[in-house]
Amino acid sequence: MRVVLFKINQLGDNIAFVPAVQALRERCPDWQITVLTTPNAAELYGGPLGPQEILTCAKPAFDKSYRRPWELARWLWTIRRRRPGACLIAFDQSNAAHAVAKFSGAAVRIGGNLGRIRVGRSLTEEIPLPQDASPVTWNWRMTGALARSFGRGAGWPDEPPPPDLRHLLTGSRPPSGARRRLVVHAGASRGMNQWPLERFASVAASLSRDFEVVWIEHGGTTGRAPPGTTAAPVDSLAGLAAWLAGADLFLGNNSGPMHLANALGCPGVAVTGPTAIGWDPYWHRDRWIALRHPDLYCAPCEKLTAELPGCMNTANPMACLGYWTTQRVDAACRRQLERADGRVP
To answer: Which terminus in the chain has less CB density within 10 A, N or C?
Structure first.
C-alpha cells in the first residue's frame, strides 16, 4: 500500500514529525511511504527508517499554489498518480495540502485541523489537539491512528521516542578540545522568536573566557562571531548535527536548531519569548532549561491553534524576550554545566 504524509513546514516542525514516520516505517515495512516536505528538512528523513520517497517544495510556494491553478493541478497529479491508499495531513498543513489529499483518491485521510481549513471533508478522521498541546504528541497520535486504521496499531506507545538521526552523523566530527564546548546558534526563522544577536554575542564572549564557544554561522548570524569564539559556517543539517552531537551545551532561541540539539540529546538553554509552551524541548527535559518570563501576564501569547500576528503588549513590546539580560542567560548556561557536573541539583 502507498501512504502519503504531508509535512510542508519549517525545520523544528519536521523534527517533531520524524519519530512518527520512523515508527510507521518500522511497523509497516511493506508500505510504500512518501513524505512531502520542504527542501531544508529533507535530510531529516534519511537513514534506514526513512520513507522510500521524499518530495520537496518550498512552503510558501506550496501553500499559495491555489493562486496558480496549474501548480496546484501539478501537485494533484503528482500525488494522485501514486494511487495512495491513505494520507496523513499534519495539523499545521495548509488548504492546499488538504485539497491535494482529498482528491488524491485515498480512502483514508487522517490528520489535524487548526480551524483554518476551508476544504470540506478533507479528513476522514480528525485527531484533536492533545492535552499537552505538544506538536510531537499530536503528530504521534495522528500516525498511531493511521496505523490502527489498517490493523497495525496494536501496542502503539503512548509517548514517542527521540528521532533516530544517526544518518546525519556519518561524516567527520569536530575534534574534542581541552575545554568544555558550547555551541551557540543565535538565529531563528521568525523575528518574534529572536533574542537580540548582540546579546547572544555578549553571552558567547563571556562564556568563551571559561569554555570553548562555537558560534554557528548561518544566515543572519554569519560574520557576527564575537572575539574569543570559533566561527563555524554550516550549510547542511549534517554539518550542524556534527557540532551539536559533540557539544556539552547548546544555547539558542526556541527554533529549529534548538529542537535538533534536543533530539540529538545535547543539553541546552533556550531563550524563549512568545512561543507556545508546547514547543518547549520535548525530549531529555532534565537536561534543558526553557527560559520564559516568570510572571508576564501576556506570555506566552502564541497558541498552537492560532497564528500570532504580532506582539500584543503595546505598553512594553516583546517584554518576554527583553526580560532576559545577558547576565541572566550567562548564569543559566553556567548553571546547566554545573548541573551536568553534579555540582547543583
So the answer is: C
CA 234 – CA 92 distance, rounded (Å): 28
Contact 226, 200 (CB under 8 A): no
CATH of the domain at 207: 3.40.50.2000
174 SS3 class: coil
- CA dist 179 to 200, 235, 242, 249, 339, Å? 20, 26, 18, 12, 17
Identify residue 140 by its one-letter amino acid code. Answer: W
Taking a C-beta distance cutoff of 8 angstroms, is the pair 275, 292 a contact?
no
CA 281-283-284 angle, to 5 degrees, is 100
**CA angle at 184 for the pair 178 and 189, rounded to the nearest 5°:** 160
57 falls within a domain:
yes
Q: What is the DSSP string of 115-150?
A: S---STT--SEEPPPPTT--HHHHHHHHHHHHHHHT
What is the domain extent for residue 225? Answer: 175-341
Domains of the chain: total: 2
Residue ending a domain, choose from 93, 123, 157: 157
Residue 165 inside a domain? The answer is no
Indicate the SS3 state at residue 273.
coil
* Locus of grid cell 525530549: 283
DSSP string for residues in 53-117: EEEE--HHHHHTGGGSHHHHHHHHHHHHTT--SEEEE-TT--HHHHHHHHTTT-SEEEE---S--
E strands present in 132-219: 181-185, 212-217
Q: Which residues contact 128 (CB under 8 A, 6 or more apart)?
A: 112
10-residue averages of pLDDT along the chain (345 residues)? 97 97 97 98 97 98 95 97 98 96 98 89 96 96 98 95 96 85 93 93 98 95 95 95 95 97 97 94 96 92 82 90 97 92 60
